[in-house]
Amino acid sequence: MDKKNPVISTSVVDAVLDAHQNPDLGKATIREIVTIVNDIEETSGEKFIRMEMGVPGLEPSPVGIKAEIAALNRGVAARYPMLDGIKELKYEASRFVKAFANLDIDPRGCVPSVGSMQGAFANFMTCGNLEKKRDTFLFIDPGFPVQKQQLVVLGFKYESFDIYHYRGDKLKEKLESYLSKGNISAIIYSNPNNPTWVCMNEHELEVIGTLATKYDTIVLEDLAYFAMDFRNDMSKPYAPPYQPTVGRYTDNYVLLISSSKIFSYAGQRIGVMCISNKLFYREYENLESRFGLATYGKALVNRVLYSLSSGVGHSSQFALAEIYKQAVEGKYNILDGVREYEKRAVSMKRMFLENGFSLVYEKDLDEPIADGFYFTLSYCGMAGGELLKNLLYFGISAISLHITGSVMEGIRACVSQTGEDRFEELKMRLEAFNNVYG
Ligand SMILES: Cc1ncc(COP(=O)(O)O)c(C=O)c1O
Fold it and tell me: In the chain, what are the domain boundaries?
């Protein structure tokens, strides 16, 4: 490779960007970037180092596949599953949250959803109708951009703040400044965090939980990366350390547990919502007048989920039930496969740092941020969109932090699609980039 020149001809990249009407890449959605990169790859014949989308880069759980095939062979495809999930999955999900998060949630409150995406959407619809005065959601950002899109689609309002400047003790005052207004129906965040891989600690979760109780707000805790803070081995059932969760500090919570990343089961679109025992049975006058059912759990299942998809694919429920069962019984280690992401993050971060990049979100309070699915990068004061565009010429794609609600400039890099076989190429591309811009 000629080090003075980019990897992909400038004219090819420019022509594709032109064809897409020169979008501001700082504001482009993940799927828009995916399409642009697909087009550049097709025109140039050059394969990108793709870091824009959190696609699982590992084989799907064999335990799940076996159970799913067996279920299909038994003929489940012909039958509608119950709205709130098959018995086996509800029971195993309840055991799973006990074994790995040390929370007691009855099987009744463990309800499958079509991915955590639908779990969030359904809970947004329900939370947005609890009380007339609570018409706004609060994101502890940076966050997963599609959840804001869901609120836009639903026509609900939201506010947000970036946790960057409000870690630890500073979180309480900041959160209280929103909650004390009385208009927040639910707080949402992911932990570990997409896009920054910030992992909130028990103290921060205690602050959130205590304030959620004080101001009677629901917490939608998105555990899409359940147990994937690899600094602590949370893979041993019924033994600490457990997945940190707000569920220890308030009864007003719903956990959204995806199976897409931890079990590489994204294609089957199944996740589980775990609704606290108290919240499941809690009655709201406004739910009664809006949906004809007063309790949170019933309105969520019998009105919202029924309307959205009438439940979740039957065979994938058997898959997830068996994965949970084997994990809880210690026959399957939930982190065995996904630790690969940690290894990739160590190597990839090093390559970026050796070539003039810096980590944007680099610390969890005093500790360096963990190595996991994502990390965040900046380069010589470039704005996120500009950095993203410049990297395209070097065959590297990512997303801008701007679209995640971050106040920082930079990009999010996802390690999932880059195996070790591409590391040498990544290194050469980064050196070439740094030679041009450094
Ligand atoms: C924070 C977060 N929440 C939810 C999801 C979606 O999960 P699912 O595939 O289960 O719908 C993702 C996927 O990237 C995510 O990063």
Answer: 10-58+338-437, 62-328
Q: Give the per-residue pLDDT at 5.
A: 67
pTM over 0.70: yes
Q: Which of 244, 134, 239 is nearest to 190 (CA)?
A: 244
| Separation of alpha carbons 250 and 272, rounded Å | 20
Written as one string, the DSSP assignment of 401-421 is GGGGT-SS--EEEE-TT--GG
Residues 54, 414 contacting (CB under 8 angstroms)? yes
Angle in degrees, CA 34, 35, 39, rounded to 5: 115
Name beta bridge partners: 139. Answer: 160, 188
Q: Is the Cβ atom of 264 under 6 angstroms away from ligand 1?
A: no
DSSP code per residue over 20-51: TT---TTT--HHHHHHHHHHHHHHH-PPPEE-
Amino acid symbol at 302: N
Q: Is the CB of 150 under 6 A from ligand 1?
A: no
Please report, in angstroms and rounded to a whole number, the separation of the first and last CA atoms in the chain. 18
* CATH domain 10-58+338-437 topology: Aspartate Aminotransferase, domain 1 (3.90.1150)
Amino acid at residue number 193: N
Q: For domain 62-328, give the CATH number.
A: 3.40.640.10
Ligand 1 centroid–CA 6 distance in Å is: 33
Does the beta carbon of 224 lie inside 6 Å of ligand 1? yes
Ligand 1 centre to CA of 224 (Å) is: 5
Cβ–ligand 1 distance for 103 under 6 Å, the answer: no
Q: What is the rounded average pLDDT for all residues in the chain?
A: 96
Give the 3-state secondary structure of residue 377: strand
Which ligand 1 atom lies nearest to the CA of residue 114? 11
Phi–psi pair at 412, nearest 5 degrees: -105, 130
The answer to whether the CB of 226 is under 6 A from ligand 1 is no
Mutation test of ligand 1: which of 188, 255, 258 has the most ligand atoms closer than 8 Å to its C-beta? 258
Predicted confidence band at 231 (pLDDT cuts at 50, 70, 90)? very high
